[in-house]
Amino acid sequence: xEEKPLNLLETRDALVxxxxxxxxxxxxxxxxxxxxxxxxxxxxxxxxxxxAIRELKxxxxxxxxxxxxxxxxxxxxxxxxxxxxxxxxxxxxPKTARPRKLSMRRPWEAxxxxxxxxxxxxxxxxxxxRR
Length: 131
What we know:
mainly alpha, about 65% helix
């Protein structure tokens, strides 16, 4: 069965759902960060996710690249530090990317690769955030 591409509204709704999950995981991410860092990563991610949600809901977009650019920009400006840069860069499309339609599966495939990379790093104290 061929997968139907998402329209802009469906893409926005899927992104808002993913960002809402990130935002609601703030306390859990803070607990994980306490083992290696200063314990505020979840609060930072929640702040960035909430800013991205507000941006997605406040604007009208003409293509999916604009939706991802809005997420990246909102996260970079609201999170600050290395996390803001990483989340901003990871969610922003390349400037040369041609806008295209997304299937529901594609955004998750992109994010799952990032999560696997981060998970496999298995950082141990002392970490850079404790210096």
